Amino acid sequence: QVQLVESGGGLVQAGGSLRLSCAASGRTFSSYTMGWFRQAPGKEREFVARITWSGDITYYADSVKGRFTISRDNAKNMVYLQMNSLKPEDTAVYYCAQNRRLYGLGSGAPIEYDYWGQGTQVTVSS
User: Which long-range contacts (CB under 8 A, 24 or more apart) does 44-49 make?
Assistant: First the structure.
């Protein structure tokens, strides 16, 4: 059984930074694309970023491009999301997720991911 545990959320002022971490266990971490999603109150879950199994390719939502950086450490079974220049509209619960396909490139669609963490709250004050 795969387990994903996020950490690093919190309250930060606009313009500040946070680094989210996600610890994975349960199947060969280095064989799966990992993604970060977020969900604000009253809104649908949306794609933030993803990174392929080798870490060579990354994708970002337009809303975070240039401000957020996704990375992974396959030796530690960890994926990270460095968030800089945070804005109040970045406020949401952030989830890490594992793509369902072995060596799949994944996409921005939540249905492509079969395991999810419990989420970590990020609140950006203006």
Answer: 45/95, 45/110, 47/108, 47/109, 47/110, 48/81, 48/94, 49/81
Task: Please report the DSSP string for 58-112 in residue order.
Answer: EEE-TTTTTTEEEEEETTTTEEEEEE-S--GGG-EEEEEEEESSTT----S-GGG
pLDDT digits (tens, 9 = 90+) for 17-56: 999 999 999 899 999 999 999 999 999 999 999 999 999 9
Longest dimension (CA), the chain: 41
Rounded to 5 degrees, what are φ and ψ at 30? -70, 0
pLDDT score for 7: 97
- 105 pLDDT tier (thresholds 50, 70, 90): confident
Q: What pLDDT score was predicted for residue 104?
A: 86
CA dihedral 100, 51, 26, 38 (to 10 degrees): -80
Residue 87's Cβ-side half-sphere holds a number of Cα atoms within 13 Å equal to 7
The arithmetic mean of pLDDT across residues 99-122, rounded, is: 94
